[in-house]
Amino acid sequence: MSDAMKEDLWRRWRAGDSISVISRALGKPPGSVFTVLKHHGGIAPGERVRRADHLSAEDRESG
Questions:
Q1: Which stretch of DSSP H or E encloses residue 1?
Q2: In a 10 Å sphere around its CB, with 0-12 CB exposed, 13-18 middle and 19+ buried, how is residue 6 labelled?
Q3: Which end of the chain has less Cβ packing within 10 Å, N or C?
Q4: Which of 5, 6, 3 is nearest to 44 (CA)?
Q5: The organism sits in which domain of life (predicted)?
């Protein structure tokens, strides 16, 4: 499932749509929607943020 589809899934889930309604809207089987929801305990994951002191690819290669 693409990131855009997952965002739509979580938006619909927060709005109160059922798994079957979400699956029809995304064109995916209900089991796929359930798997994403179950993996995160039904709570949308937070946005990932990189640490300020992370190494860039160039820094890793020159080290």
A1: none
A2: middle
A3: C
A4: 6
A5: Bacteria
Q: Calculate the alpha carbon distances from 17 to 11, 44, 51, 63 in Å.
A: 9, 14, 34, 50
pTM of the model: 0.70
Highest mean pLDDT (candidates 1-5, 33-37, 48-52): 33-37
The single-letter code of the amino acid at 39 is H
Per-residue pLDDT tens for 24-36?
Answer: 999 999 999 999 9
3-state secondary structure 3-63: HHHHHHHHHHHHCCCCHHHHHHHHCCCHHHHHHHHHHCCCCCCCCCCCCCCCCCHHHHHHC
